[in-house]
Amino acid sequence: MTAVVPKHLIFLHKARRLCIILGCIYVLVVALGTTPFAQAQLLFMHNLRRPFFVQYDMPEMYDLAPFKVQNVRIQTADNETLGAWFTFADPFYASHKHHLLSVPTTSLSSPGSNAVSRDDLIPYATRLRANVLAPDYRGFADSTGTPTEAGLTLDTRAAWDWLRAHGASPDNLLIVGSSLGTGVAVQFASALEEEVARADTEARVVNSKLEALIDTYYILGLMPLFAPLRTVPYLFEAFPNWPLALSAGTSYVPSYSGILLDVKAPVLIVHAEDDQDIPVWHAQQLFNAFLEKYLPPLPEITAKMVEGSTETVKERFSALLEERATRRGELVAVQEMERVGRIEEFSRDRGDGKVVFLHTWWGAHDVGLVEGVQDYMAEMFKIG
Known about the structure:
The protein is an alpha/beta fold. The protein has one domain (53-228, 255-380): 3-Layer(aba) Sandwich (Rossmann fold). The protein has helices at residues 7-32, 36-44, 90-102, 116-119, 123-127, 149-165, 181-192, 210-215, 235-238, 241-250, 257-260, 281-292, 303-307, 311-331, 371-380, and strands spanning 69-75, 81-87, 132-135, 175-178, 199-202, 218-219, 223-224, 267-272, 333-337, 341-346, 355-360. The strands form three sheets. The chain has a six-stranded mixed sheet, sandwiched between helices. A three-stranded antiparallel sheet has the order 1-2-3. It is globular.
C-alpha cells in the first residue's frame, strides 16, 4: 500500500529546500565578499560588460548628433590609456555644426562596453550648456588597466590635464562625481588644493563610516545586505571587520568623507529620497559633519548615560541640544524647490565656499540626471 503524502507537506519540504539553497548562496556570496578579488568585482563591477560590442568611435549610433561627441584617448601618468567622450555644449555645437561636419576625423576602433557611463553625462551639455568630458576609468569599457583607488585618482588627474591642455581654465571647470565616482572626485578636488574652484558631489556613497554604508546597503532595494547575520549572536558585530581589514590592504575601498571636509571649494551634495541603494541619511550625515564645527560642542555621551544621570545633568544636556538646534537654525537656510526637493545651505568662514545639500524627492541612484538638479547646479556654479 502506497502512502499518500499531503500536498501541504510537499510544499513545506520544497520551501525548506529552497530556503536552504538560498541560505547557502547567501553565505557563499558574503564569504567571497571578504576576499580582495571579489571586493574589487563587487565595488567596481568593471567586468560586467553591457551592452556588448559598443562602437565608441561612432557616437551617432547612440542617437547623438553628428560630430557633437568626439571619441578621444587620454594617457595617464602611469601609462594607462583611457577612453572618453568629449561632448560640445549645445550653443557651441549649434554655431559650429557646419564646420564640424566638414572637418575630416580619424576614428579609433574600440571593442569596449559600459557606454552608459559616457551617455549619462551628455545631458549636462544641453541643460548646463557646458562642454562635458566623460572618461571611463581604467579597467572599464575600452580603457586599459585594472581599477584601484589610487589609479582612479590618477585617471581623474589625466582627464583634468587633458582639459587644461586643450585650453580649459580651472575657474571654468566643475568636478562632478556620482556614486563610487564621488570618492574619486573628492580625493582629486582635495589634491588640487588652490587650483580647484568648485566641486560637486552626488553624495550617494560619501559617509563618515564605511561600516555604516555596508550595514545599510540594500539588496535590490528590498533587504539590508547583512540582515540575516543579525540573527546570529555576536557574529554580526565581528563580521564587518573582515572585509574592511582586507580592503585596507588592497586599497579598493576609498575613505574620503574626512578629506571632503577639508575641501575649500563650494560643495554641492545631492541625494534622492527614493535611492534604493544608499539611504539618504548618509548625505544628511555628511552635511551635518560640515556644520559640526560651527555648533556648540557636544560631549561624548550615550543615551544610557543620560538616562542614568541626575535631573540636573539631564536638564543641562537638554539645554545644550536646544542651543545647538537654535544655532543650526541661524546658520542653515532652508528652502523648498517645488516638485524637486529641499535645499539646506550654509556659508563657511574664512572665505571657504558654501555647502549645499539638495535632498530630492526622486531621482533614485541617478539623481544627477534630474533636470531640476542640473538647473540648480547651473545656478549655483554660474554655468551657461
